[in-house]
């Protein structure tokens, strides 16, 4: 199987400081890959570099686009701005930790879901509204609240709205930075359930950042463990968590094992 996304020796620095360094991995279609590590380990830097929201300093990044053309592997680091934006609009999603950063807060819930559809060419108002209504239900929001502003929804509901906004166009690859952080534990559990259902039914490829091993265990097929900007261990979720090899992973796992 061809990887959807391939990173080799990807590096991003802030001045002299390490953001992330020398990261290599392949992400396959339908796979959920978690990036775990403590605060400051470089998770967000890596995610943003992969999602082309930050420019890499070194390394390579290739993507098997649905519309690949002659060479079906896109060299992402050489992509023009317009093509980058097209890719983000048509094939990728990005779910922010804080839903306020990923929603348009001045327009209704329905418009938040409908806008990305219009951005990929949908024009029929009734159909857009129908789709928005369906997606409200799909993320377990009360569809009768479609005309309310995001601010009228709770934090967990806003996060589900952000997820609907990101999935409505049928992306192939979704980036998520700590999507369940900052939510109550019970709300987190429900959101995790929803994410698990959506990723498997939609056969999504997902790169998800979390410092929460529990989130990783529940969602991820594979893990990458980061420390000080580098990946210190990677592998199948169960293998890494049940039999961690690197001392840092051992500490990370033993500090959060359920009693
Ligand atoms: N804009 C920036 N300018 C300078 N240094 C930065 C910037 N963003 C991050 N860093 C540094 O890069 C390193 C990695 O930060 P990053 O935000 O990627 O970590 P993280 O694993 O996402 O942490 P957290 O779990 O707290 O979100 C840290 O040393 C951080 O101080
Ligand atoms: Mg972060």
UniProtKB/TrEMBL annotation:
<keyword id="KW-0067">ATP-binding</keyword>
<dbReference type="GO" id="GO:0019700">
    <property type="term" value="P:organic phosphonate catabolic process"/>
</dbReference>
<keyword id="KW-1003">Cell membrane</keyword>
<dbReference type="InterPro" id="IPR027417">
    <property type="entry name" value="P-loop_NTPase"/>
</dbReference>
<protein>
    <submittedName>
        <fullName>Putative phosphonate transport system ATP-binding protein</fullName>
    </submittedName>
</protein>
<keyword id="KW-0997">Cell inner membrane</keyword>
<dbReference type="InterPro" id="IPR003439">
    <property type="entry name" value="ABC_transporter-like_ATP-bd"/>
</dbReference>
<dbReference type="GO" id="GO:0005524">
    <property type="term" value="F:ATP binding"/>
</dbReference>
<dbReference type="GO" id="GO:0016887">
    <property type="term" value="F:ATP hydrolysis activity"/>
</dbReference>
<keyword id="KW-0472">Membrane</keyword>
<dbReference type="InterPro" id="IPR003593">
    <property type="entry name" value="AAA+_ATPase"/>
</dbReference>
<keyword id="KW-0547">Nucleotide-binding</keyword>
<dbReference type="InterPro" id="IPR012700">
    <property type="entry name" value="PhnK"/>
</dbReference>
<dbReference type="Pfam" id="PF00005">
    <property type="entry name" value="ABC_tran"/>
</dbReference>
<feature type="domain" description="ABC transporter">
    <location>
        <begin position="5"/>
        <end position="253"/>
    </location>
</feature>
<dbReference type="InterPro" id="IPR017871">
    <property type="entry name" value="ABC_transporter-like_CS"/>
</dbReference>
């Amino acid at each position: 199987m061809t990887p959807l996304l391939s990173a080799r020796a990807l590096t991003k620095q802030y001045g002299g400081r390490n953001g992330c360094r020398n990261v290599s991995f392949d992400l396959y279609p339908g796979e959920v890959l978690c990036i775990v590590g403590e605060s400051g380990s470089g998770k967000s830097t890596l995610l943003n570099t992969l999602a082309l929201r930050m420019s890499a300093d070194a390394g390579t990044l290739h993507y098997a686009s649905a519309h690949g053309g002659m060479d079906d592997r896109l060299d992402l680091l050489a992509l023009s701005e317009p093509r980058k934006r097209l890719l983000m609009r048509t094939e990728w999603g990005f779910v922010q930790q804080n839903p306020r950063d990923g929603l348009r807060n001045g327009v209704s819930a329905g418009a938040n879901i409908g806008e990305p559809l219009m951005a990929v060419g949908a024009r029929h108002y009734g159909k857009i509204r129908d789709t928005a209504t369906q997606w409200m239900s799909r993320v377990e929001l009360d569809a009768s609240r479609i005309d309310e502003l995001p601010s009228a929804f709770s934090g967990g509901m806003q996060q589900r709205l952000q997820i609907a906004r990101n999935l409505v166009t049928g992306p192939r690859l979704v980036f998520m930075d700590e999507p369940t952080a900052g939510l109550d534990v019970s709300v987190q559990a429900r959101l995790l359930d929803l994410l698990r259902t959506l990723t498997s039914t939609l056969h999504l490829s997902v790169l998800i950042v979390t410092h929460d091993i529990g989130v990783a265990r529940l969602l991820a097929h594979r893990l990458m463990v980061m420390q000080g900007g580098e990946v210190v261990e990677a592998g199948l979720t169960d293998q890494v968590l049940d039999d961690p090899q690197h001392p840092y992973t051992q500490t990370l796992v033993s500090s959060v094992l359920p009693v």
